[in-house]
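Journal club side-thread
Mid-discussion, someone asked how the predicted structure for our own chain would compare to the paper's figures. Pasting it here so we can look after the session.
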Amino acid sequence: MDKETSCKKPTPKCLACGIQGHSIWDYWYLFKDKRPVGVIIGDVRINRALKKVEKNKNLTNQVTKIRLKE
């Protein structure tokens, strides 16, 4: 089956971590309030995401806009 006949929805790719399956809007590492209750995330991953955001001005602006909408 090729891309033109596929029924699958394209999965988003997170701009902060580069992993497919979620968007930056749902990224638990950056938005603590989006984490499911009881989920604990290591500081290493959080710091890695924050550094990537700091290095990319467009990504910084996106994260700021998302936080303002909450």
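Post-session note: The chain has a mean pLDDT of 84.
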